[in-house]
Amino acid sequence: MFEIKRYTKEQENEWNMFVAQSKNGTFLFDRQYMDYHSKRFNDHSLMVYRSGKLYALLPGNVADETFYSHQGLTFGGLVMNEKATAVDVIDVFNLINNSLRNDGLRRVVYKPSPWIFHRQPSEEDLYAIIKICGARLCARELSSTISRDHYNKWYHIRKDGAKKAKGLGVTITKSDDFQTFWHILTENLKKRYGVVPVHTIEEIQLLKQRFPNNIRLVIAKEGENIVGGTVLYVYDRVIHSQYISANDRGRDIHSIDLLFETVIRDSLITHPYFDFGISTEKHGTFLNEKLLYQKEGFGARAVCFDTYEYNL
User: Fold this and answer.
1) Which residue from 77, 71, 72 is spatially nearest to 113, judged by alpha carbons?
2) What is the distance between the terminal CA atoms of the chain, rounded to a whole angstrom?
3) How does pLDDT run across 131-157, given as a tens digit for each residue?
4) Reduced to 3 states, what is the DSSP secondary structure of residue 267?
5) Counting Cβ atoms within 10 Å, is residue 213 exposed (0-12), middle (13-18) or buried (19+)?
6) Is the confidence at residue 38, as pLDDT, over 90?
7) Are strands 2-6 and 136-147 parallel, antiparallel or unpaired?
8) pLDDT category, 231, cuts 50, 70, 90?
9) Can you give the pTM of this predicted structure?
């Protein structure tokens, strides 16, 4: 009934068209996004056909006899068409597992897309990997999300911060000045956490060029100076804050509070969810309570980003 093939560059258009029409795909799975850092990963993406028609995709890479879905993406998992059913997806995973075994792989690390990103209910894969694969939860990251239908009140500290920033003349606007924001972001991450952004400035500019409607920069300015900002990833049902940062002056004048007063309001006009991203580190074992408190202060509440693993 089903046939499985390894993805090749020649199938890029077919792959991308399926992602765009699937019930749970996002622009992260478009090959123009996935392949921007293709040299870092050994791609092993799979395409599942039924009676000659594409039925599902599994973005993935391999390393050390392990299949990952996908190490270069925030999340991955099986991308399905709207006709996919639970029984069929069970058959699909049997086929996938046999294919991976034949390729000499011994383990799968599976990171599905959280439900808020789905266009319609799409968790057939979660049932299948437990029922037939014996998957276990190996990591649980904690993200913070605001629902348009159940909007929580802000903490007073966030309201007061936004009011102070507005009184000092801080303005919020869209921008294409990724260069200046990246300098703020890089310095901030290096000073506070000893890390660098996942994307280089060249990479984020390339992705912005490829996906102008899906990647946005919103900045906070004091006069003509950028003091903070956020890079937004725009999905079908979610606007997600991929990066947030402010310099010392921006923090002093609470620019981020005013920034998100604007960003959240505008996001929930067009999308049912606004997501701040995770506040956990070390595969979810460390919770940054200070960062979480800030996000919950804007009315956000928990959504889990899970990772599973199983042996083949």
Assistant:
1) 77
2) 22
3) 999 999 999 999 999 999 998 999 999
4) helix
5) exposed
6) no
7) unpaired
8) very high
9) 0.95
